[in-house]
Amino acid sequence: MNLYLDAGNTRIKWQLRDGTGVLAQGAGLMESPELFSGVTPTQWRATVRVAVSTVRSERAREQLQELLAQYTGAPVEFFWTESHFGSVQCAYRTPESMGADRWHALIGAWSEIRGRCVVVDAGSAITADWLEEDGRHLGGYILPGKRMMLESLQRNTARVLFNADNSLTDVMPGRSTDECVFHGVNWLMGAIGSELARIGPMPLLLTGGDAVHIREALLRAGCPGESVRVRPDLVIEGLAIVDAAR
Ligand SMILES: Nc1ncnc2c1ncn2[C@@H]1O[C@H](COP(=O)(O)OP(=O)(O)O)[C@@H](O)[C@H]1O
Ligand SMILES: CC(C)(COP(=O)(O)O)[C@@H](O)C(=O)NCCC(=O)O
Ligand SMILES: [K+]
């Protein structure tokens, strides 16, 4: 059995796999004692490798390694962005500076599409990356994620006071602070959707904890439903492909 981890700036997502497929999976904060509660002692003993895609700090990477060592003696290998993998060519002149999650999501997307597509990861940050017909990465964008936008308003203004747990979904002009803030975030997500819909039609692969918000924006913008594909495990899919080829 191999354990695969996608360690983002908010959550650690993991999957335990063997040759037949996914045996267990989970997600949570690195500090949570429940993070790996879905792995049984028998499964920990049967784990022979741990592969990690991380964008967290170096200190957090070391803490993650120390945490894993409490459960298993299996070797832990970290995988980073490379200049190329198979047909996928990274657009960065310095590939090592591109987030490993973006790279592994591209590898996962390419294994499914084998053609032009866009990968959007709506996590702590929102990233969008373009792949050309031949697998060349054209580049992408990094934006604040939904929660980062809300926290930034709370931290950097004196009078924009709202309930961060709101679930307002409209995009009409707001008539209260709550509505202006949440309709504003939805409006911005809609703008991303409209921009992506404009460049279509091509497969749009969505991942990350806020992928559903991007999906709603894309459908609102008139994107054909069949081109919008939510792939919650895209980073781990790509990580497993790279790990298997090592
Ligand atoms: N159970 C959850 N816990 C934390 N954030 C969540 C959860 N479900 C959805 N989210 C949303 O998704 C974002 C985190 O998504 P995720 O893909 O885990 O981020 P990252 O890859 O940056 O760790 C949060 O900012 C939040 O808005
Ligand atoms: C942009 C990111 C923070 C997204 O990570 P996440 O939101 O999943 O935590 C991550 O891909 C990253 O740290 N990138 C490094 C800079 C770059 O990709 O150019
Ligand atoms: K991510």
From TrEMBL:
Subcellular location: Cytoplasm
The enzyme's E.C. designation: 2.7.1.33
InterPro entries: ATPase_NBD, Type_III_PanK
Pfam families referenced in this protein's UniProt entry, alphabetically: Pan_kinase
Binding site for substrate: 92, 99-102, 177
Protein's UniProt keywords contain Hydrolase: no
SUPFAM superfamilies membership: Actin-like ATPase domain (SSF53067)
Active site: 101 (proton acceptor)
Binding site for ATP: 6-13, 124
GO molecular function: ATP binding; metal ion binding; pantothenate kinase activity
Cofactor: NH4(+); K(+)
Any one Gene Ontology cellular component term annotated for this protein: cytoplasm
Chain positions recorded as K(+) binding sites: 121
Domain of life, source organism: Bacteria
Protein purpose: Catalyzes the phosphorylation of pantothenate (Pan), the first step in CoA biosynthesis.
HAMAP family attached to this UniProt entry: Pantothen_kinase_3
PANTHER family referenced in this protein's UniProt entry, alphabetically: TYPE III PANTOTHENATE KINASE (PTHR34265:SF1)
Protein name: Type III pantothenate kinase
Origin species: Marinobacter daqiaonensis
